[in-house]
Amino acid sequence: MSVKENFEVAKKQYEKWGISVEEAFEKLKNVPISIHCWQGDDIGGFEVDQQELSGGIDVTGDYPGKATTPEELRSDLEKALSLIPGKHKINLHAIYAETDGKLVDRNELEPTHFENWVQWAKEHDLGLDFNPTLFSHPKAADGLTLAHPDKEIRDFWIEHCIKSRKIGEYFGKELGQPALTNIWIPDGYKDIPSDRLTPRKRLKESLDEIFAADVDESLNIDAVESKLFGIGSEAYVVGSHEFYMGYALKNNKLCLLDSGHYHPTEVVSNKISAMLLFSDRLALHVSRPVRWDSDHVIILDDELREIGLEIVRNDALDKVMIGLDFFDASINRVAAWTIGTRNMIKSLLYALLLPNDHLKQLQETGNFTDRLALFEEFKTYPFGAIWDYYCEQMGVPAQEKWLEEVKDYEKKVLSKRNS
Ligand code: RNT
Ligand code: ZN
After folding, report:
1. Which intervals of the chain form a coiled coil (predicted)?
2. Is 227 a catalytic residue?
3. 178-209: per-residue pLDDT in tens?
4. How far apart are CA 4 and CA 22, in angstroms?
């Protein structure tokens, strides 16, 4: 049976429940996923004086063929994008600037350093998002940046963040859709602090300065990302969840929730509905923590499905800006992007194909037996046949056929690199 024939049979199963598969496709097509460029080169970037990765995050593995130039990274992204259904955004970090071999420090970055990215985004009908990079730099060597006791260091990073917001604004203007500029900093202490408040006061003041700079909010949207701990900041992180939640709500900024940044049994899916009662918008870094904030490639596990469900059944597809944040250097990096992004999209499609109103009603009437029974039965509905047809309709390979293309690309392109 062809993909289409399988689809026609599968579709009927969902229609039984009054679910329109075509409507689900229409909705899904319009959901951009912000694909992080840094999976392609292990968060290396292109700085002239490239530093070792710091900030308490880590990438393990040495799978051959990683991108070491902007051209290579863009080519790898193009390959992945050709295997991912839909129109998406690419999420850049400041270290991916192109400075033509010149040393340009982070506080001197300008939109011109991202012209090639913008040109490329235009050619491929992509949006761009941005992040200042407050790690892998001599001025971040103490594990403190915006909360550093030394004003000079703080000022350097404040300047960098302002420049970053301007770059986001430039992306928004050039590409006709706002960029999300997300601030994440590594600041924290390895051991028990004697003063938790002072660094937080300093971070608050630094953020106030950063956001006081004039940037068009219709072109650039600001987000702040919290964290629980990092390598070397196990005992205390200045920008904790409560800190940023408070800051974002009070200052009209977006809270960015990274699914690896909470206690092991605490889940982002359970936060979405609560946060959306107090904030119009929310941003996500969808990641997969394995025992710690390990940033594994996301799989279609319970939590990913639950995130999809919370976005879909709360009518929040245009309120939650979905970004990805994983980096695995032990497998083919183009495959990592493809697997993770396809899974994110699958989780949304899965959620769009559930009888959510009916399930809500069951809960309202206390019918927990039917609620559980249906959740479980839907897990083995012919979802795969619907997904395959969606891929085919969107002009990307169905099922595991994409893997052959990645293997071919590895043979022809990645294996010829020295990295
Ligand atoms: C680190 C944060 C942050 C980074 C990227 C590279 O724990 O999740 O988002 O992963 O900025
Ligand atoms: Zn993150």
Report:
1. none
2. yes
3. 999 999 999 999 999 999 999 999 999 999 99
4. 13
